[in-house]
Every structure is written in C-alpha cells, then in structure tokens.
Design a protein that fits this description.
With 180 residues, this protein is α+β, with helices and mostly antiparallel strands. The protein is built from seven helices and seven strands. It has a seven-stranded mixed beta sheet. Helix 2 (19-26) packs antiparallel against helix 4 and helix 6 crosses helix 7 (144-153). The longest helix is centred in the last third of the chain and has 15 residues, at 115-129.
C-alpha cells in the first residue's frame, strides 16, 4: 500500500465502550473463518481490558482516526505452561520474553489493500521501540491472505519451527531498515 495509508494508521487501547463494535466485527464471516466463537472472543477481550487477563493487551487499529481493525499483543512466557503447550508445543521453543501478535481488519472490503500489513509493521516497530526483541505471529498456514500480508509486514517463517505444530506457521518479525 502507498505510504500515505501507513501515516494514517494509529492504535489505541480497547475500552469497554468498544466491546459492542468488536462483537459485530468478530461475528463477520472473514473473522469467523480464523477466530473462535464470537461471544467467547469478546469475553476474552473484556477480561483483558478489565485486568483479569494481564498476559494480553488489546488495541483498536484506527485509520484516519476511525476504528478499522483489532490488534493484540500477548506475552509468551505466561503461556509456556502445560495447558497451552500441549496444543502449541512451539511455545517452549521460543524465548519466554517473546511477544505474539494477532490482528484482523474490521471489514472484509478492506482486505488485500495493504492496510493490515502496514498496521502490523507499524505495531511491530512500536514493540521493538518498547524493547521487545522477539515478535511472533502464528497464522494458520492455510490462511494464504494473512501469510502474504505478514510477509509484506516483515515477518518470516521460523525455519526450525515449520511443521512442528499442525495448523500453525510461526513467523518472526525481521526489521528491514529499508522498510521503516
């Protein structure tokens, strides 16, 4: 996407008043293909903003000041426990101080326009500026649109983790100074 779009992208913490908006978004088909039950997902986000889940931080992606998507960062260390590693053994093969990122754009009409890639790249650069050194994303390898967008944002598959967890492609942010 052109540079002006990335200049219009910003992030703000999710607030309680955003939950109805997020409930509408997560119920859409392009979210449902890759996310969980809409009601459960909104409960997870509510737990994050109300402090019951301190392992994740949720944000709205805004485009020219208007909510355009959702992005969250989660800390790997607290997830390196048997309850999580039984289904995601790759968690034990990355540093405990690593962070993961998940995102989706609000509307299907905005997919494949470079907005998600630009938002993810900016978010990852912000995480680097905060001192995070290992930034991961874990798409389903069958989600070709997401994998392509994440590559465009600067994420690359982690070779030693490829194929280790069915249905998951572990990708790590590789900052390219030419793209910042």
């Amino acid at each position: 996407m052109s540079a002006p779009v990335s200049h219009d992208i910003a992030f703000r913490p999710v607030e309680a008043g955003d939950l109805p908006l997020l409930a509408r978004w997560v119920a859409q088909p392009h979210w449902q293909e890759w996310w969980g039950d809409p009601e459960t997902e909104v409960v997870y986000i509510r737990d994050m903003i109300e402090g019951r889940d301190g392992t994740c931080s949720p944000f709205l992606i805004t485009l020219a000041g208007t909510p355009a998507g959702y992005i969250q960062v989660w800390r790997v260390g607290p997830h390196q426990i048997p309850a999580w590693t039984a289904e995601s053994p790759w968690l034990l093969e990355v540093p405990a101080e690593a962070v993961g990122v998940d995102l989706s754009l609000a509307d299907a009409q905005r997919l494949s326009q470079g907005i998600g890639s630009a938002a993810l790249r900016r978010f990852a650069v912000n995480l680097l500026a905060q001192g995070h050194r290992t930034i991961l994303i874990d798409p389903d390898p069958g989600n070709a649109r997401a994998v392509a967008a994440y590559r465009k944002a600067g994420f690359r598959p982690v070779p030693h983790l490829e194929g280790r967890t069915p249905g998951v492609l572990i990708m790590q942010f590789q900052q390219d100074p030419d793209l910042t």
